[in-house]
Amino acid sequence: MKGIRFAALGGIVIACAIVAFFIMSREEEPAFEGKPLSHWLARLDSDPRTANVAITAMGSKATPFVIEELRAHDSSLEIWWRQFVRRQGWRWSYTMPATHRNRRAVRACMILRTHALLAVPHLEKLLHQAKTPDERNEIWLVLCRVEAPGTLVMFHTMTNGNPKLRSEARSVLSLNYSSGLSSNPTPVVTLLVSNLLHGSMPMRGHAAEALGWIGKLPDVTIPALGLCLNDPDEKLRNVAVASLGHFTRNTNAEHFVRTAFADRARSVRVAATNALTRLYPPPPISYE
Asked: Mind giving me the DSSP string for the chain?
């Protein structure tokens, strides 16, 4: 009996030592006005304006801890405990659901903007795990704020097996650039052109489509799209012609679109007609 007691006591001591080791080895949490980051993350629900000021002030120091919250997931024990508490009708629980911690961290990334660049891979993982459009919308907004790395996630998501995700990625990528949310398209355009010229299908088709939506850096984009008009893949030629139509009143784009009128495929010729109309839209009708 005494041996069992000593064994139990030894187990408790070892467990306490392990917990103490992890607490001591954990980097000190950044603070604002004497209160730690975790306090301000909790305040995002009740007082978002003040929490925004605090998280902005902490800047890049907050990033490692925000990433830790993004990576949070519920253990089997935590899930069992919350179910047990619910069955008992109790109103309290010592554990916060990981999904709630994740969403707070996503909102913190939105505040940190470019300081959250290191969080992008974790945001991409959460995007694929999100179960509701609202959860995904928050993540899409963050990806728009972190410029090029976030845009690359949108581009890669266009090849995802989930049709809803593909559709959302197309819409967000188009809106991101047409509304001017992204100020520096160069890194993304460079990568898309590389995928367009050297990638494999269907990635090349998605790259051609995305370059049209972005509609930036015509000196780089238009010649790359023009090269695709000689490709044996009809779908790629079709998408390339349609994307050239986004470069309004550009004479180089017009040259490539006109060459597509001689394409052997009727669908490409039709796409060229539509692209030319988009390149030179008719003037608005005046009723005066």
From this structure: -HHHHHHHHHHHHHHHHHHHHHHHHSPPPPEETTEEHHHHHHHHHH-HHHHHHHHHHHGGGGHHHHHHHHT----HHHHHHHHHHHHHT-S--S---HHHHHHHHHHHHHHHGGGGGGGHHHHHHHHHH--SHHHHHHHHHHHHHT-HHHHHHHHHHTT-S-HHHHHHHHHHHHHHHHTT--S--HHHHHHHHHHHHH--TTHHHHHHHHHHHH---HHHHHHHHHHGGG-S-HHHHHHHHHHHTTSTT-HHHHHHHHHGGG-SSHHHHHHHHHHHHHHSPPPPPP--
Residue with tokens 């989930």: 162
* Other residues' Cβ atoms within 10 Å of the Cβ of residue 264: 8
How many Cα neighbours within 13 Å face the side chain of 1? 0
pLDDT tens digit string along 57-95? 998 899 899 999 888 887 787 777 777 777 777 766 556
Residue-level pLDDT at 22: 40
Backbone angles phi, psi at 245, to 5 degrees: -70, -15
pTM of the model as a whole: 0.59
Query: Which residues is 36 bridged to in the sheet?
Result: 31
Number of residues written out for the chain? 288
- Could you write out the DSSP letters of every residue in 199-255? --TTHHHHHHHHHHHH---HHHHHHHHHHGGG-S-HHHHHHHHHHHTTSTT-HHHHH
